[in-house]
Amino acid sequence: MNIDDRIERRLGYDIGAGVLVDLDAVSPVSHVDSPVGRGPAFERLLDVFEPAFSGRLPPSTYVHGPKGSGKSAIVSALFARLAAHSGPRRAIQTSTRAVEPTLPGFVYVDARRATTRFRLYHAALDAVSDDSVPEHGVSTDELAETLSSAMRSGPDLVVAIDHVNEPETPAATTVVEWLDNVDGGIIPVCLGRHSPDELEWEPAEEVGFEPYRRHVLVELLTSRCSTGLGRDAVSHDQIREISEWAEGDAHDALAAITGAAVTAEREGASTVRPRDLDAGIEGITKPGVALGRVLSLSESRQRLLYELVSLPESDRASVSAATETIASRPAVDLSASTVRRVLYELADAGLLDRVTVAHSDGKGRPPSRLVPRFPTLVFRELFDRPR
């Protein structure tokens, strides 16, 4: 929050704005320009990238840590800042004329949206090219050659590939091989949750993230809520309660706060009440799935999940009941068998849990129901909003 925002809040410009003022400010899938509480992590990364400040390429790096530990927020913010300092490769100068070194180009790519070699090259090229990059009518090899040409006339690249080794994303080894196939100097920086020992790829450096400490998470939530929620919409004690419950996971903490604010907003409340906070917490499955994975799915799959989480409990008592109801919805143009198949695929990917119904009056194998493993309140709110 900048100084003008703070002054306006004191003047009361946000009075009557409701509980939820800016969804993006508190959403667990949004990152701020200046993340709070991770100064040491910034310094560790800057130590690794130190060679870049002398005009040289830094080492390949693996950034790892659990969900909600700030990896994506920190690296994306840092790369955005470093990209602003990189530029075209300068001509050779004489020794009598001092010239500032040129930083490599820094590019951040989310593997959830760049799941193929084509998409990875496209994302990297789009970040360094002034011209629009075609989506169609060009082959993967042509994109690789165009990316190589761009690097011959510009700086070398440091490419951060976030969320590797997830069920829907390529492995770190795979994306590194893809980048190695491009002529020129590209240094990979992979981000993931797996331990370095579990990777087949051996980076030159590793940077580990730990869960947020409680007081740091309180500071983070306070900062985000001061922008995203109405003044006095949530108390400091409620923020502390969420921070203790989240156990260092900023994603879950923000999802719970947002879910509580959404609940209060829908009921016309002016503040987050205890029952709103309970609803926000109950909407989170632990251990659960990051909402970013859900929002990176295709529109059709997101629609099926939206319809599933919108069903009353009675219609979710079994997979059969849920699929029949979803297939009958006007917004879903799929047969019940297709709906069932896709939902099972989403369960296999870990986005849904298949839970056996405890009591069944029928014979044979007892039915199962599907339980979402992601923040449903926040997902529904984001899905309902214009995109």
TrEMBL record:
Q: A Pfam family for this UniProt protein?
A: AAA_16
* Presence of the UniProt keyword Electron transport in the record: no
The record's annotation in Gene3D superfamilies points to: 1.10.8.60, P-loop containing nucleotide triphosphate hydrolases
Q: What region holds the Orc1-like AAA ATPase domain?
A: 35-166
Give TM regions.
none
Biological process terms from the Gene Ontology for this record are:
DNA replication
User: Which GO terms fall under molecular function for this chain's record?
Assistant: ATP binding
- Which keywords does UniProt give here? ATP-binding, DNA replication, Nucleotide-binding
Record's InterPro entries? AAA_16, ORC1/CDC6, P-loop_NTPase, WH_DNA-bd_sf
Say yes or no: keyword Mitochondrion present. no
PANTHER family in alphabetical order:
CELL DIVISION CONTROL PROTEIN 6-RELATED, ORC1-TYPE DNA REPLICATION PROTEIN
What is the protein name stated in its UniProt record? Answer: Cdc6/Cdc18 family protein
User: Source species, please?
Assistant: Halorubrum laminariae
